Amino acid sequence: MDNIYSILDKVSQSGQGAALCTIIATKGSTPLKPGGKMVVMEDKKTFGTVGGGMLEQIVIEKALEAISEGKSQVFKYDLLNELNMSCGGNVDVFIDPVVRKKKLYIFGAGHVGRSIARYALPLDFNIFVIDERQDIFRDWDITGINIRNEHHSEFFKEMAFDKDTFAVVTTYTHDLDREILALCIKQPLAYVGMISSKRKAKVTKDKFLAEGIATEEELDKVDMPVGVEINAEGPDEIAVSIVAGLIKEKNRDIVRSKKCIK
After folding, report:
1. 102-256 — its CATH code?
2. What is the pLDDT, as a whole number, of residue 258?
3. Were 227 and a residue from 12, 37, 39, 242 both cysteine, which residue would form a disulfide, CB within 3.0 to 4.6 Å?
4. What is the pLDDT of residue 68?
């Protein structure tokens, strides 16, 4: 059976929301002493315990709030008077939401897709590369990423898309790029970008509007041509410009916070 710390490591890698609840102080008779730990997942699954009973129910509720708000906090409980537990002691519980990695979905494992994965690997992303072509990953020389050798439609059925998900569309045909982009646009993503020329971007936008695939508002959220303008040439430089754009978007909230402090 996995211990609490191996579970936390898996949680961090998976991108799931979770919180670590730790008993940090006790007084009198209590179910557990300081050091008792429980991991609460955003789907309400738990691992470990802080003592059971009403205390545990309340801690799970507070943990779910902490996951949603992203804030750590200490809660103090009088087991007898507040929770009607016969132990009669006092327990302090520290609830700390787990910092989860943001997910990066790269559609297309060609030269640019491979370079994006390589340059994004040291960053705070849990990376998935999706491509259905046979043998496309045969000479793949990057470890530490999730390879999905399957059609993108299967990937969309299996994987979660949320406010911590980034997607880059860089496949081998314009039609496939647009097909995947049409699916991405309807997801609650933090960011989506598609590799393109300015002409391809305009043609795509006009097509999506004319066929009712997306609205102006939805298209305005798409980064196309994807990446920061650095006059990039070749797959590696293009990938660097794209990863720079990912970093800029990922750290947008940090920049806003610094401006507020000033």
Report:
1. 3.40.50.720
2. 43
3. 242
4. 83
